[in-house]
Amino acid sequence: MIKDKNRIQELMELDKKHFLHPTSPIKQQQDEGPSFIFTEGKGVHLQDMAGNTVIDGMSSLWNVNVGHGREELGKVAMEQMSKLAFSSCFATFSNEPAIRLAAKLAEIAPGDLSATFFTSGGSEANDTAYKLARHYWILKGQPNRRKIISRTKSYHGVAMGATNATGLKPFREFTNSFDPDFCYADHFSTQDLREVIEAEGPESIAAFIAEPVQGAGGLHVAPDGYFQEVRSICDEYGILFITDEVITGFGRTGKYFGIEHYGVVPDMMCFAKGVTSGYAQLGGVMISEKIHKDFTELSTGTLLHGYTYSGHPMACAVGLKNIDIIEQENLIKNAEVMGNEMLKGFKWIQGERRIVGKVKGLGLMGGIEIVKDQQTNERFQTSIAPMIVTEAAKRGLICRSVVFDSQDTLVFSPPLTINKEEMARLLEILNDAIAAIEAQVLK
Ligand code: PMP
């Protein structure tokens, strides 16, 4: 025990000194060190070095869809690494896991999305989509179509293009990223999209990108008819429609891909996270058969875009096995059923607590807005959701808060494997944590 304590202390100090954490409050990390040093995971649970067990109510970063501790994925990774850890996919080189995963994706993706460009994650997938869209228009003889329209409250990652497309302003301000070729339409208004297109000039626009359900921006489910109208506006102006399914893909919303809820097919689709459930770093962009055909017929030279790890054999082998698990265990159906259970639970909490405003979700993506007054939806002066996140973590539940754009929202995305008892426990801890903070702030 003493030995463990010393080891934790040592790691705390090394973390503070040497580990610059992604998306982190740097001062707090320096003052307090890491809050959890995780060592193990099983199903929906994570365990840390100090022996605490918590429910991973976020699937870590919306990505561990099949849950933690899947030995079968470890086995596939080991076998592939032992046989062929890496070989290039540049030019005409290839490998079997990448080929088979690309073929499997074509089988499960909506409509005629049929060819995949692989990346190592979601940000690279987004940058790739913008670059492919621009290149497409060069090939089509319309090189002025360079602009990318995205939505307010969107999150598309942190590569340069993805940062510029991200509608949450603090991410752009952080690095002074205000590329004039990126513009933003209100996340719920197709009228605004039309106005942005008209104001920028339709002939200057390459693509419009949207998350089927906005995650990191505060859990926003589009209004009825929104995406159908988006599809027809994009067709009307000849703009490519890209969906960012980095969170919403691979069963998260109760369908294979989030856009399927709306019955429309994008021209390109970005994915990452759930493709391997985080067991390996993988993402990609799928393009429609039509775009693929145009690329093939109109291209005169080399496709000058490629990451060293595009088509990584081990990552693709893990992806294939992960999709197999999702299908074998009916996890997409479970996401729908447990998603309904989660939303029902949120509504129950809303009835129990005075600081819970709107509750929302689709499948296993859920959100709870915190308000000072349930009747008027008035917000507190300071953000309360982060206090609830801290309280919930102490009580054994990891969730996340979103405070951008004056929001005060809790968000959730537990593993698709979650069962009834685990969901009940998640909701119970959540209600207790909200009650504890409510007692403090409504004193
Ligand atoms: N798009 C969306 C919708 C995301 O939620 C994220 C990550 N949370 C990304 C892109 C970026 O993916 P990555 O962090 O793998 O680069």
Automatic annotation (TrEMBL):
<dbReference type="InterPro" id="IPR015422">
    <property type="entry name" value="PyrdxlP-dep_Trfase_small"/>
</dbReference>
<dbReference type="InterPro" id="IPR049704">
    <property type="entry name" value="Aminotrans_3_PPA_site"/>
</dbReference>
<dbReference type="InterPro" id="IPR015421">
    <property type="entry name" value="PyrdxlP-dep_Trfase_major"/>
</dbReference>
<dbReference type="Pfam" id="PF00202">
    <property type="entry name" value="Aminotran_3"/>
</dbReference>
<keyword id="KW-0808">Transferase</keyword>
<dbReference type="InterPro" id="IPR005814">
    <property type="entry name" value="Aminotrans_3"/>
</dbReference>
<keyword id="KW-0663">Pyridoxal phosphate</keyword>
<keyword id="KW-0032">Aminotransferase</keyword>
<dbReference type="GO" id="GO:0030170">
    <property type="term" value="F:pyridoxal phosphate binding"/>
</dbReference>
<protein>
    <submittedName>
        <fullName>Aspartate aminotransferase family protein</fullName>
    </submittedName>
</protein>
<dbReference type="GO" id="GO:0008483">
    <property type="term" value="F:transaminase activity"/>
</dbReference>
<dbReference type="InterPro" id="IPR015424">
    <property type="entry name" value="PyrdxlP-dep_Trfase"/>
</dbReference>
<comment type="similarity">
    <text>Belongs to the class-III pyridoxal-phosphate-dependent aminotransferase family.</text>
</comment>
